[in-house]
Design a protein that fits this description.
The protein is mainly α. The chain is 75% helix and 6% strand. It has three domains: 49 residues, Ubiquitin-like (UB roll); 65 residues, Type II secretion system (T2SS), domain F (Receptor-associated Protein), CATH 1.20.81; 249 residues, Receptor-associated Protein, CATH 1.20.81.30. The protein is built from 15 helices and three strands. Strand 1 and strand 2 form a beta hairpin. Helix 6 runs antiparallel to helix 7, helix 7 packs antiparallel against helix 8 and helix 7 packs antiparallel against helix 10. The radius of gyration is 30 Å and the shape is flat.
Length: 406
């Protein structure tokens, strides 16, 4: 199936309807398809060949979640305007700035032209279109309201990406500053402190304890820097290996993240917001609750919450109401349980959960802003200890010498 989605660039020559010579480029999954498309456009092909690849090729730009959200929004808008599905995908694909996304959408278009449904074509690309996306598209196709459900998918993706960006923004700044501080400290220890050490030896005087400690630290780092670097690089790859392959490690990591002050609170409220937004979207689409909870579990973004949702799904499938199932796992605030209960009683589960999602998304926004404000003084303290401490250590002997001379 993978070969079917690959687009190949062809260079062709031929004549148009007026018998004028013409040439151009076309992307298709095979030479036969390319010729057929050109004939459909009124050209008679006399020569066609694959476009040679440039000697230096640019690195392929990966497809991001933001690309998928934009695709859903554009496709929903075009379908609502009355455009046929194949034409809408063609317009979105050819107009996309990301070549990888263009290839993906042209492959989906070819699948649909071959008789597949949009949902079945999307399911062939689980890396980009998750179970929630595919289920909602399938429900929209069956009910004849594909544009409406694509609009809901787009809204869900946009809100989810907005929340991720805010959390990443709050965490990226302090991490970047601390990383720069560590690098500057290492440079000072490796290259600057040895210069001062030679200067201090020429004095012949006893050095303060703090200065001797820094000089010893510098000497140790100069001798063993490659081991320190190897440990750091090895730790990164070991972490990445277990993060991708070990469920127990991810379980431990997610549980620890929930216990970190402020950060844990953000992750908790973010998981509740995702749960509420996802279940609201699927409920509005008419997806059965038991089936919806399966997709919701994967959208929570935390294994602890995902396991709680799967336990709730099991209880609901055995006949329990969702409110009672939520109470038994003990992960959901009382307000969320009461809103779900009201939704179950009134038949407006999607509206109630949407309000819960709005509330917790706003809570996450406020917490992220507070975290940014909180991190600034902490960063200043870290910078002062690392960089300022080294500078003070190097100048203490100079101050001591100046006092002795005076």
């Amino acid at each position: 199936m993978a070969e079917k989605t690959e687009q190949i660039d062809y260079i062709w020559q031929g004549v148009d309807k007026a018998k004028n010579k013409t040439k151009g480029e076309i992307a298709a999954i095979s030479e036969i398809v390319a010729k057929a498309e050109l004939r459909r456009q009124g050209f008679r092909v006399t020569n066609i060949k694959k476009k040679p690849k440039p000697f230096f090729t640019a690195r392929t730009k990966p497809i991001t979640a933001a690309d998928i959200a934009i695709f859903a929004r554009q496709l929903a808008t075009m379908l609502a305007a009355g455009l046929p599905l194949v034409q809408a995908i063609d317009i979105v694909g050819k107009g996309h700035e990301n070549p990888s996304m263009q290839t993906l959408l042209m492959g989906i278009k070819a699948d649909i032209e071959g008789g597949d449904t949009l949902a079945s074509s999307l399911k062939r690309h689980p890396v980009y279109f998750d179970e929630l996306f595919c289920n909602l598209v399938e429900a929209g196709e069956h009910a004849g309201v594909l544009d409406t459900l694509l609009d809901k998918v787009a809204t869900y993706k946009e809100k989810s990406e907005s929340m991720k960006k805010k959390i990443k923004k709050a965490l990226t700044y302090p991490i970047a500053v601390v990383a720069v501080a560590v690098i500057v400290t290492a440079i000072l220890l490796l290259f600057v402190v040895p210069v001062f050490e030679d200067l201090f030896k020429s004095f012949g005087a006893d050095l303060p304890a703090f200065t001797r400690m820094v000089i010893n630290m510098s000497a140790w780092l100069q001798e063993w820097w490659y081991i320190v670097l190897g440990i750091l690089v090895g730790a990164y790859y070991v972490f990445d290996f277990f993060k991708k392959r070990s469920k127990p490690f991810n379980h431990f990591l997610d549980r620890m993240l929930l216990q970190i002050p402020v950060v844990g609170l953000i992750i908790n409220k973010s998981a509740i917001a995702r749960f509420s937004r996802t279940l609201s979207t699927m409920s509005a689409a008419g997806v059965p609750l038991v089936e919806a909870l399966q997709s919701v579990a994967g959208a929570c973004g935390n294994i602890i919450y995902a396991e709680a949702v799967l336990k709730m799904r099991e209880d609901v499938s055995n006949g329990q109401r969702l409110q009672f199932a939520m109470g038994q796992v003990g992960m959901w605030p009382h307000m969320v349980q009461q809103m779900v209960a009201i939704g179950e009683e009134s038949g407006s589960m999607d509206a109630m959960l949407s309000k819960v999602a709005d509330f917790y998304e706003e809570e996450v926004d406020n917490l992220v802003d507070n975290l940014s404000s909180l991190m600034e003084p902490i960063i200043m303290v870290i910078l002062g200890i690392l960089v300022g401490g080294l500078i003070v250590a190097m100048y203490l002997p100079i101050f001591k010498l100046g006092a002795a001379v005076g």
